[in-house]
Amino acid sequence: MTALAHPRVLIPESKIRQRILELANEISYDYRGKEITAICVLKGSYIFFADLIRGLARPLNCEFMGVSSYGTKTVSSGEVKITLDMTEPANGKHIIIVEDIVDTGLTMQYLLNHLKARKPASIKVCTLLLKPESMKCDVQLDYVGFRIANEFVVGYGLDYAGSYRQIPYIGVLDNET
Ligand code: 5GP
């Protein structure tokens, strides 16, 4: 077994924790009087999702969706496939899509269009990370944790070829990309 290389720290744990509290407070305020259906987009967003929902002071339902757009490559294929769907109907629900990172925006655009067709009462997007320079489409992003440069990041749920998800900070693999 080989040891994992240590990615360069881009966003430390403490900053992530603080920003998630702010996002959770903002979302809780915006959804006063409403029940939230939060969709965790697997796999990358599960750690962010777990931390975010624990800060939401509103009635909450959790759903999980699988979307595949990346293999082991570090560039967007633009190809999106739903590999796991919600278990309850989206119709009439106040949905928040919780995503780890928006890069080209193609995955989110696809997911939004797909879910809007199911007639939710409302639909918003919360992404931990955004790479503004990589965006290839005009996609609605309601809550953004951090805007980052166009470099490949890992950790805090994000992987490179299946590894690095357990690293507690957001880091950059300088030699791999
Ligand atoms: P998009 O469709 O916006 O180009 O890509 C969205 C998906 O690509 C994300 O959900 C994530 O799985 C993957 N992705 C994009 N940039 C990165 C990155 O820097 N690191 C990792 N680990 N995944 C990324």
Summarize the structure.
The chain has about 180 residues and is an alpha/beta fold. The protein has helices spanning about 15-30, 45-55, 105-115; strands spanning about 10, 35-40, 60-70, 80-85, 95-100, 120-130, 145, 155, 170. Helix 3 (about 105-115) links the parallel strand 5 and strand 6.
Textual characterization of the structure:
By secondary structure, the chain is α/β, with parallel strands linked by helices. It has a single domain (13-152), classed as 3-Layer(aba) Sandwich (Rossmann fold). It has helices at residues 13-30, 46-53, 106-116; strands at 8-11, 36-42, 60-68, 81-84, 94-102, 122-130, 143-147, 153-154, 170-172. Helix 3 links the parallel strand 5 and strand 6. Helix 1 crosses helix 2 (46-53). It is globular and about 45 Å long. Bound molecules: guanosine-5'-monophosphate. Residues 44, 69-70, 76, 99-108, 152-154, 158-160 line the site of guanosine-5'-monophosphate (5GP). Residues 44, 69-70, 76, 99-108, 152-154, 158-160 line the site of guanosine-5'-monophosphate.
Rg (C-alpha, Å): 16 Å
Which ranges are low-confidence, i.e. pLDDT below 50, for 5 or more consecutive residues? Answer: none
Which class in CATH terms? Alpha Beta
Number of strands: 9
Q: What's the CATH architecture?
A: 3-Layer(aba) Sandwich
Structural class: alpha/beta
DSSP strand content: 25-35%
Mean pLDDT: 92
Descriptive labels:
single chain, 177 residues, alpha/beta, Rossmann fold, six-stranded mixed β-sheet, three-stranded antiparallel β-sheet, globular, binds guanosine-5'-monophosphate
